[in-house]
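Entry 14. Structure prediction run on the chain below.
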Amino acid sequence: MRELPIIGITMGDPSGIGPEIIRKALIDREILEICRPVVFGDVGAILETPAGDSDPVIREITSPREAEGRPGRIDILPLSELSATHRVPGKPSSAGGKAMVTFILQAVASALKGDIAGMVTCPISKVLMQEAGYAFEGHTQLIAQLTDAEEYVMMLAGDRLRVCLVTIHCALKDVPNLLQVNGVYRTIAVTARALRVDFGIPSPRLAVAALNPHAGEAGLFGREEEDIIIPAVTRARNEGFEVEGPFPADTLFFKAAAGGFDAVIAMYHD
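Output returned:
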């Protein structure tokens, strides 16, 4: 039989939705048919999460390699022992924030050592992460630093639509000043490579969303398209990337979701 890959799951904020998501997800036999999941987290947070229609056995392990992926059981690497007051749903705590970061650090370390084949992250509190001493905007930047990744892009992906972001977690009013030709170009290039390597799409078709309504209307509604986005798209096309745009977002996403493009490059998070 083929040995299934071990996938690490970081619990996220122990007072957040992560423990419930994990408990409900890991009773799904379809997941156990494709991997051996191991939770990086807090045992108490899992045990106190409502079980719903199931009551899986919680099995503590000392190494991700011990994960077996058996039905009715959740393998967990216990990395914290939070008191009940620090894992109250909906009431984040500083202790929970420190534990939350520990889960991520240990999962990345395990991935780099080859103990897990990949990792899935449950939601975190960005505020608590910064209070714990990690001044990052979210998972993306923290993991990039831990893995020495110089070029990285956040992708929001579903069955019908993939969207990659030029800027990530920032105030909307800051986006225009953060946009640069090289940043837009880099997002296009990284996305195209990922679609080829990770998604198996030989010739990915990319579309770039405008920042301003009507794609700026030739500068009438803003100069970002003329001065930044179009030069980046032109550079990418000249280097052989199959990319079009910028297109007004009000029509682009409908076309992309209908299969017109393999991914959209968007200027901001939402």
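Strands lie at 6-10, 36-42, 57-60, 73-80, 118-121, 155-157, 162-165, 206-209, 243-247, 263-266.
Filed with the rest of this week's runs.
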